[in-house]
Structures are given as structure tokens and as C-alpha cells.
Here is the input.
Amino acid sequence: MDEIKIKHYGDELYQAWLTRSTVAPLLAREPDITIEDAYQIQLRMIERRVAAGETIVGKKIGVTSKPVQDFLGVYQPDFGQLTSGMVYQEGEDIDLSQLIQPKAEAELAFVLKADLIGPGITAMDVIRATDYVAPCFEIVDSRITDWKIKIQDTVADNASCGVYVIGNTRGDPRLLDITLAGMVLEKNGELHSTAAGAAVQGSPANAVAWLANTLGVLGIPFRAGEVILSGSQSVLVPVVDGDVLECTVGGLGSCRVKFTGRSAV
Amino acid sequence: MSLNLTLTREDIVRLCERVEGAQRRAYAIPKLTDEYPSMTIDDGYAVQHELRRRYIARGARLTGWKAGLTSRAKMLQMGVHVPSIGFLLADMARPENSAIKTSDMVHPRVECEVAFVTKKTLKGPNCTRQEVLEATDYVLPAVEIIDSRFSGFKFDLPSVIADNGSSARYVAGGRARYAADIDLRTLGVVMEKNGEIIAVGASAAVLGHPAEAIAMLVNILAEQGEQLAAGSFVMSGGITEAIPVKPGDSIIARFQELGSVSMRFIE
Here is the structure.
């Protein structure tokens, strides 16, 4: 795909994000688009957000669970960039009017205290470079009409990232079994679903190692202080005005979020 | 409390013999409600009671009980609103890391569970989670091998109760813990078959907290005029979905804080 098209689609997705509207699936319009092209489109979309005043604060990993990989027919994760405008603090209500067709995912977040420069990074390096882990919610959103995404569409659309909340509880991954830690998700006070860390690439640390190695190959920086959302341990939960979600990671603690307002779709 | 029984003593014995034959010789039978459509849950427990009486009369030792259909997903799947219970015998137990025969089962499936060992008698009705925790000696991880004797694993609540809640074998092991030392609600569980992760979950999947399932079990026992003896081994119900196994399969269930339980299956 040539640079003009990459810029075109990156700008189109940026405008869709800015105006809370959706666009037709890219792959339907450009059948030859590759995953590499899609990352170039993502970079353009993010470049526009940074030019408008946001900063890069971390990365998110997507397509980490077997059901999602089976659905997309892709047997590796993807990633998107987290920007300063996506951050909510625990305790703040999440304003759905800023989003288009949001769904929540319960995850484990990592915060780095050292750079992780791949290739050659293993899960042990990830634990060594981790300042702390915390329970979190990522509110995914899609700028693609009706979530009709293939892997190229979601990669181009910044891995369908919307906003996120990191729980105030922090844990040391040296003191916690992040692979076997249970994940209990409750919606409006009722049990919604359960999982464990291993749902993400066998262990969330494996997903972060994959990310470090992938970023290393692409020459994208992965620095101390960055936040990594390591991939969903739950099913996608559609959310509406008034919903309250709480996720609890066994041995660590919980993150609670409330949603207000109406999303665009 | 009066029981809602529709079966005659003769019917109960007849159905018990049918279930016992299917259990002992490992063959599938149609669900009992095909012949007795008005059969109730209490009728199911009456057949199960007769089944237990016969096994024990022949020298089997009662080791404890199991709660079944305790996850919301399973209850929805079955279209039922109440879980079920079944009894456990010493000859259903298999050691950790052992080879388990499948030729004496119909269509075995495995599920990961938190098990409780009690040190005090528990009585219903109105048994609570707190009473269960106070009466618990220790908890440990377990894998239950269920095996419905009904064709295609298709049954309704009265039939599955008569078939002793599909109980077949169980393997307990891992690491024993005091219930007070761990958060029993958020324990993560990973089940691997032949080295591949096939199911994950957390213990809250069982009625919000596994001790709730034990309290429920004690209350069902009370309805049938029984209590849970001190020293009982009680499985609280599957955290993960039930996974079919066949000869050659190897299973490892890994539990947060409780270690792991493994076994393999042979002809």
C-alpha cells in the first residue's frame, strides 16, 4: 500500500474518532491490505492525535485469547498505542458520550520501570522490568461500522482502543502468581464471568514479551513508565448508562468503574 | 417438610436397579423421565438414596458428597434453578498422577473443583457460608470425573439426581490449605489437556463462592432428613466446563494457591 493511501485511511480513522462516527471496513475497500500496512495506518492515526496535543503513555495488546483468535483467524496478538486522552482514574465515571460502540474488558495492566527493547525479550525479562501490576478495565471501541472487523481493520483502528482505567491496587509480580491469578468480573453487583491470567497467551507476561519483541522489530520505543494493557481475560461486555463493573484479580485486588451517558451508536 | 414423591417404593427399586446396572456395567440408558414424566426432584433423591443404601450394604465406604450444576452457565444450560448433590464412595477415589481406566465408564468428562474436608457436623436448613467455613478442616484442589449414564449426556434434574449427579471418579491432591489463609472466591484455575489450555476460570463461578455450594448441599441434605458428617470430603462443583476425555489423554488442573492435580486416562 502506498503512502498516500496509508495517510488517507489514517486520517479517515482519526476523523471518525474525532467525530464519534464510523467508517466502512477497510479490508472491504482494500482487499490487498496487509497487517504491516494496517500498522502504518495506525501510526498515522496516532500521529494525528499526538499532533493535536496528546502524548503516548503506553501500549495495549489485543487478540490474545483463543476465542478471539479463532474468530479473526489470526494466531498472534496485535497492539495499539495508549495516549494521554484515553486515561481515566479509578473513581471517575466513564463518559460514554465520548465513545461510539464501547465494550469493556477486564485485564491485568503492567507498568514498566525499565525499558524493554526487543527482540530477544522473554517473560523473565518482563517481570524484571515491571514496576507493578494492577487490575484494569479497557473500554474497547471501534471506528469501524458495527464492529465488522478483520485483523487488518482492528490493527489500523489502533487495535480498537477506546479508553482505560487502571485500578488503584498495585501488586509486585514477584509476589503474585499472574498466570494462575483468578479474574472475577461482576456487572451491577452480579457475577458476570470468571477467568484466570493464563487465558492471555498462557500468561500475561508472555503477551508483554511478545509486544516487546514485536515493537523491537518495528523500531517503536517501549520505555520505563509506560503502561501495558496485557490483553482481555474476560469476554467483551457491552456497557450502557448506569452500569457498574468490578473486576477482582485473585491475590491482587479489584478495579471498579461506573459508566454514564450515551455512546454514539 | 414434606417430600413431593410420585414414585411408589416398587418404582424406586426398579429405577435404582436400572441406574445401578448402567453404572456398574458402563452403558447408557434413556433418561428416567421418558418413562416417568412426572418424576420429581424428591423422587430423584429417593432413587439416589436407595442406590447409596445398596452400595454401602455391599461394603462401600461413604467418603463424602459432591455439589453439581452449581455454576450459572450449567444451570442455564440445563434449564434448572437449583443445583444437585450426589454421594462419593471410597472406590470412586483415584490417586493423584494415576492412570484411570475409561473402559468402565460411558463417556467421562473432567471438571476442576475446590474440595472441602470438614471437621464438624453441618446441619441444615439455613446452613450459611460462614458456618461452612467454621466447620472446614482444610480445602484442597480436586478433579471430578463425571459420567452421566444417560445417552448423549442428555438428562433433566430428576434423572441426573437419580444417577447420583453423574458421579463416577474423583482425584484430590495438590496442596491442602486452611480456608482462612486464602481468598476462596478469587482462586484462578487452569485446566490443561495434553499440554494445551482448554479451560480457565475462577472459583467465584461456583455460586459466587465455593462455600456457598457446600451450604446449599447441607440444606439439600436437610430436606432429605440428613446431615453432613464431620470428616466428609465435599466437592463444591465445577469451576470450569466439563471436558470429555479418552484413553491417551493427560489432564493437569492448576489452581492458584492450591497447587495442581494430574492424571491420565487409559483404555
Chain B has one domain: 9-266. The interface with chain A takes residues 72, 183, 185-190, 197, 200-205, 208, 239, 254-257 of chain B (CB under 8 Å).
